Amino acid sequence: MDPVDLPLTTDRLRLRPYVESDAEAQLRILSREDVSRFLLQDPWTAEVAETQIAKRIPRTGLETESRALALVIETADGLDSLEGSRVIGDIALWLEDGSEEKAEIGWILDPAAGGHGFATEAAIAVLNVAFDHYGLHRVFAQMDARNTASAKLAQRIAMRQEAHLRKDWWSKGEWTDTLIFGMLASDRQTA
């Protein structure tokens, strides 16, 4: 696999690799109870933010040792400079264990940035990279079934709901349901 050309840019967003200074901006988002509620981790502390960002920095492509691409979602007044940019979340793509053709996608968006189509724009850009650059066969997303915003996003980007697993995941003191959405490379050709 060849490296992907980063950052990815869309009409309104820059999707770029992580840097150490992203810890503060991501802490602002991931320390929120309403954001972390549906995630595997508890709300972030400053220490957790530094540790997690350090883990994400080397995730620069599926062809790397990390087998993952972790990108900061950033809005910008002018995409040619960082001036006026604002971190609004992140999006990641990682190869499924033992596979070079299947990957999982995940996203987190600051609720204050919701309702403007930013997550949709970012997810489509990463799916384009997944299928057009990396030539993947399948991309899937798994989420807490109570996370209706994430499920709606998966539907908006034309992923198909493939499963609703009942009480299959023990998370934060309770059994939770999981939704699984998927997209095949061939789905994009018929959409």
From TrEMBL:
Which Gene3D superfamilies does the UniProt entry name for this protein? 3.40.630.30
Task: Fetch the InterPro entries from UniProt.
Answer: Acyl_CoA_acyltransferase, GNAT_dom, Ribosomal_N-acetyltransferase
The record lists the membrane-crossing segments as none
User: Where do the N-acetyltransferase domain residues begin and end?
Assistant: 12-159
Q: What is this protein called?
A: GNAT family protein
